[in-house]
Design goal:
alpha/beta; Oxidized Rhodanese, domain 1; globular; 11 helices; 284 residues; 11 strands
């Protein structure tokens, strides 16, 4: 099953009345509240999803910035969005699919048939398809989420010096190198991590590159589909998009959801600065 759906495919499904649930997951780190944009214009029938309140849970700082929701919380949210057992779900945003991928990753990991709209809301706009304004509230669904099959990994497992395979930091190069810290107090990367930014896998129109192109990039860094891989970002959001890219190319990565926000706030964790996996270790 493809992880993606094109605007043309979605338009056809909606035109024939296919049972598709649409989730609008607009969110950006500098504009975390996407509801105003959603109210102004969205795909007809789409329900707004609050990433920070529904795809995350309140947590302690040492857990990272956006801890994963517990299964009961996620199931209750899915029912609020109108999802019932057997429904097909499409998620989208207006930022290259990065936020929507968090919803894709979580829902798929609990047995939901979910796809990400390739190119997102901008692609829908450019296609000339119909738009809706205001809030859309669906009738509550009855979805029962399956036990989690999410491939996650803990901070202590990431810290294991003999971990097999590759640790991939998917943040921007300036964050990886320690040139900027973003929202975290400390800059740098986890020692041993290589840098393959999430945007590497996205074209100029916000669409995911082909599996062959993604595989070519990953192999240029020494990663083969059979290679054990762990991906992380600042907060478990961009890394979900990289997971989507990796899986489309035949890889099976684990996701370190705590990310740099957890690692950098955990006392005693070593930190590397520079262009390579372990240029300069600045703390231990």
């Amino acid at each position: 099953m493809s992880h993606l759906v094109t605007v043309e495919e979605l338009g056809t499904e909606l035109s024939v009345g296919a049972p598709v649930r649409l989730l609008d997951v607009r969110w950006r780190l500098n504009e975390p509240e996407g509801r105003p944009a959603y109210l102004g214009s969205h795909i007809p029938g789409a329900v707004y999803v609050d990433l920070e309140r529904e795809l995350s849970r309140p947590g302690h700082p040492e857990e990272g910035r956006y801890p994963l929701p517990d299964p009961v919380q996620l199931e209750q949210a899915a029912r609020r969005w109108g999802i019932s057992d057997g429904d097909r779900v499409v998620v989208y945003d207006d930022n290259d699919g990065v936020a929507a991928a968090r919803a894709w990753w979580l829902l798929r990991g609990h047995g939901v048939h979910v796809r990400l709209l390739d190119g997102g809301f901008p692609a829908w706009l450019h296609s000339g398809n119909r738009l809706a304004r205001g809030d859309h509230i669906s009738t509550s669904g009855d979805a029962t989420l399956s036990a989690s099959s999410l491939r996650t990994i803990s901070i202590d497992e990431v810290a294991n010096a003999v971990r097999p395979g590759f640790l991939v930091d998917v943040r921007a190069p300036q964050q990886y190198r320690g040139q900027v810290s973003g929202l975290e107090a400390v800059a740098g990367h986890i020692p041993g991590a290589i840098n393959i930014p999430t945007v590497t896998h996205i074209d100029s129109r916000g669409r995911l590159l082909s599996p062959d192109r993604i595989r070519e990039t990953l192999r240029s860094h020494g990663l083969e589909p059979s290679t054990p891989v762990i991906v992380y970002c600042n907060n478990g959001i961009a890394s979900a998009h990289s997971t989507l890219a990796f899986e489309s190319a035949g890889y099976q990565p684990q996701l370190y959801a705590g990310g740099w926000s957890q690692w950098s706030s955990s006392p005693g964790r070593p930190i590397a600065i520079g262009r390579t996996p372990a240029d300069v270790i600045v703390a231990a």
